[in-house]
Structure formats: structure tokens, C-alpha cells
Write a structure and sequence with these properties.
EamA_dom; transmembrane helix; about 75% helix; transmembrane; about 300 residues; EmrE-like; mainly alpha; membrane
């Protein structure tokens, strides 16, 4: 199995678990404040992360680092992105928040080329941009009818901030993954967000029902698994090649809509899905310029 195939498989798995996490957060968005969701999502993510480190025999030794500065920057950017992402769902429809969030892979490719000096082939640019076109095909008919009131603009600002912060965090992960333990990168991030979420306790936390508590816990577990898979994927392939596969979250989201909310996709979805699937296949199978080149680890 090639490094790229391993990286792509891990990234697809991470995308699925992130989509599952977003589903749980959406179900909680009208009942639980953002800071409380961040706490549970992060605190319970620590459980699979620690189990992962124990399984790989890297706990606690795997938490040692010679690059604390990089971890701090990664955790700071990622934590801000998490708050912004969860908060944007309060003001925006999921479709609008998603299309703005999909700017992150495009920004990550640009930052990877500028900061990490990664060679970004024309095929990879095509994959990312064609995938983004698929998002536009699906979302623009709905976005065109949106009312641009103050709350909507607040949501747009939060979603844009999330996209920029996420792109910056991805670059830090890629750099850290070359020398640091994958579980440690995710562990320190979850720990940072746990503390940040707990800091909001005096403000507007609520006592959740058993059902909501279950959703909060599942949010953490799915987020922890997703972070492990995502961080591992960067050890086998480059950010610019994996960015396209984030668009598969659209497919997972539509399946969740059908199963949980009885929402049937309109015709635009099938055209968008065709664009996204085409983009992923092109990047996975036809990027011959990078084939055979070892990935630094």
C-alpha cells in the first residue's frame, strides 16, 4: 500500500467522523451554549486519544516534544477555529456555513505552497478548485435568497474566521507531523480546548438532559477519532493532495440529512456530487508527477 493511498484512506475516515461530530453539534446547537459544547467535545476526545497513545505504547512518553512553540500556535489557532465554527452554526444555515468553511482547503493549499514550499501540481489545484465549484453549484441557489441582516453577517464573519484559522492550523499540523507523535498533536489540542471550554462555565452553561448529555459525549468521541485519523494522514501525504477529500463531507452530510431529518437532495446535489467525486478521483489516480516520491516522515 502506497503512502498516498494510506494518507487518502485516513483522511476519508477523518472526514466521516468529523461529519458525524457536526451532526451531533447541530442537534445540540439550540439547547447547549457554544463553550459547553467545546468543553464536552474536547474533554471526551481525550479518552480515545489516550487509548490510542497507550495502544501505540506512546503514553506518556509520546507526549514529549521538542517543539512546544509549534504546539502552542497550532492549539491557539485550532481552538479559536472551533469556537468560531460552532458559533457560526447559531447564525447561519448549515449550507451557508459549509460553503464558507470550504475555503479552508483552498487556503491550506496556498499556505502549504508559501510556508512549507510544497510543490502544488496543476492537478491538485484542479482538484481543490473543482471541488469548490461543486460546493458553489450546490449552495449558491440557496445563498442567493438569504437575508443579509446583522445576525447573518455575524455568522459570515465567524465562518470566514474559522476558515482562515483552520487553514493556519493545518499548516502547523503538517509541520508538526514530520517530527511529532500524531496522538500527541491531537492530545494537546483537545487539552487546550477543554481548558478554554471550561473557562466559560461561569457564563451560560446549562444542565443537560440525559439525551443531550449522550450527544455531548458522542461529540467528543467522534471528534477525538477524527483528529487521530486526520493527523496520521498528514504523515503519509501532503496537505495539497489531501485537501480535495475534505469535500466528501458533503456526501456524508446529505446522507445524515436523509436519515435523521428526512431531507431529500435536490437536482443541484447530483451535479455537485459529480464535481466532487471527479475531483477526488483525479487527485487520487492521475497525479503522476508526484508518484513514486517518498513522503518525509
Amino acid at each position: 500500500m502506497s503512502f498516498d493511498f494510506k494518507g487518502i484512506s485516513l483522511r476519508v475516515g477523518a472526514t466521516f467522523f468529523f461529519a458525524l461530530m457536526v451532526l451531533f453539534i447541530k442537534l445540540l446547537s439550540d439547547e447547549i451554549p457554544v463553550g459547553q459544547v467545546v468543553f464536552f467535545r474536547s474533554a471526551f476526545a481525550l479518552i480515545p486519544l489516550v487509548l490510542f497513545l497507550m495502544w501505540t505504547r506512546d503514553f506518556p512518553s509520546g507526549l514529549k516534544t521538542k517543539r512546544p512553540g509549534r504546539h502552542i500556535v497550532r492549539c491557539f489557532l485550532g481552538c479559536l477555529a472551533m469556537f468560531a465554527s460552532f458559533a457560526s452554526l447559531k447564525y447561519l444555515p448549515m449550507s451557508h456555513a459549509s460553503i464558507i468553511g470550504y475555503m479552508a482547503p483552498v487556503l491550506a493549499v496556498v499556505l502549504a505552497a508559501v510556508l512549507l514550499k510544497e510543490a502544488v501540481s496543476n492537478v491538485r489545484w484542479f482538484g481543490v478548485l473543482f471541488g469548490f465549484l461543486g460546493m458553489l453549484v450546490l449552495i449558491l441557489p440557496t445563498a442567493a435568497s438569504a437575508e443579509f441582516d446583522a445576525e447573518y453577517l455575524t455568522g459570515v464573519g465567524l465562518a470566514l474566521a474559522m476558515a482562515i484559522l483552520t487553514a493556519g492550523a493545518k499548516i502547523q499540523i503538517r509541520s508538526l507531523a514530520l517530527t511529532e507523535n500524531a496522538g500527541a498533536i491531537a492530545f494537546y489540542f483537545a487539552l487546550t480546548c477543554t481548558v478554554a471550554g471550561l473557562a466559560t462555565l461561569p457564563f451560560d452553561w446549562v444542565l443537560p438532559s440525559w439525551e443531550l448529555l449522550g450527544l455531548l459525549i458522542c461529540t467528543g468521541f467522534s471528534g477525538g477519532i477524527a483528529h487521530i485519523l486526520m493527523t496520521l494522514s498528514y504523515q503519509y501525504s501532503e496537505i495539497s493532495k489531501l485537501a480535495t477529500f475534505e469535500y466528501l463531507s458533503l456526501v456524508f452530510a446529505v446522507i445524515a440529512d436523509g436519515l435523521f431529518f428526512d431531507i431529500i437532495p435536490e437536482a443541484a446535489f447530483y451535479l455537485a456530487a459529480a464535481c466532487i467525486i471527479c475531483a477526488t478521483l483525479v487527485v487520487a489516480l492521475n497525479d503522476r508527477s508526484a508518484r513514486g516520491q517518498p513522503v518525509p516522515r
